[in-house]
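Thread: Newbie trying to understand structure tokens

Hi all, I'm a second-year student working on a class project, and my supervisor (Dr. K.) asked me to get a predicted structure for one chain before our next meeting. I've only ever worked with sequences, so writing a 3D structure as a token string is new to me. If someone could post the tokens and maybe explain what I'm looking at, I'd be very grateful. Here's the chain:
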Amino acid sequence: MIAPAKQLPAVPTRKLPDHISPSAARSYLSCSLKFFFERVLRLPAPVSPSLHLGKAIHAGLQAFHLARWRGGNDSPEMVAGVFDVEFQRLEKDEGPVSWKDGKARAKAREDGLRVLAAYLDSGEAPTERPKAVEVPLDQKVDGLPVPLGGVIDLVTQEGVPVDFKSAAARPDTKQAAFDHEIQLVSYQLLIEGATGETPPSLDLVFLVKTKTPQVIRISTPPADATRKSRVVGLLRLAVEGIAERRFHPQPGMHCSWCPFRAECAAWPHGIREAA
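---
Reply by user tm_fold:
Sure, no problem. This is what the structure looks like when written as tokens:
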């Protein structure tokens, strides 16, 4: 007599996400289990000082660029005021922030004000009205089963998408461009889908929190067919992994600053999330 087959655990139904963003794809590809804890389960975690400061700096930049776009008050005092309000609001609404102590908090605030002032005084701040600020785009891209979505920090009058980063040290030009290839090429795909035009370049602007703040622009040429195909392939890989609920640890240097190390160590499910 043949014994009945052992019933296997149920496998979750494949479910495509509504869309994929370059930030979500990069997060999934960096560590799919961290993506699961952070974006699927939405587990609470302390906010790192660098992330907190970066969000407050971004708010100041956004206020300045919107003022330039609308022809409103774009003074340094306005930008500093927006930064301060957002710095405190984020602590209250998205905290707690894992400050080492009050002195570290005060230094972070001063660093943010100094790099914003350096940007406003630099030649990288737009003098003309930008074409778009914080523009959300959503496009169907050949090779992707779901729409590609993203929000571009700034599009210059010449049509260049610009993404802003805060950093503690001066970036290596080639490495920075490589690290953010998914994001930059995704922005090109979104702009081409929306306007039919290829941007003249894809730019990153780093606000570096050194003793003397630095503002560094890194420009890369628009992607050719090979670069586009590579990025679309990476985006598709993230979409398929999310749809099939493949979440597993990917150990590396990033584990040392991951807020979910305890949850990762206790993860029992192996390659595929249990039903």
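A couple of things are worth pointing out once you decode it. The longest helix spans residues 49-70. The chain is about 45% helix and 15% strand. Feel free to ask follow-ups in this thread.
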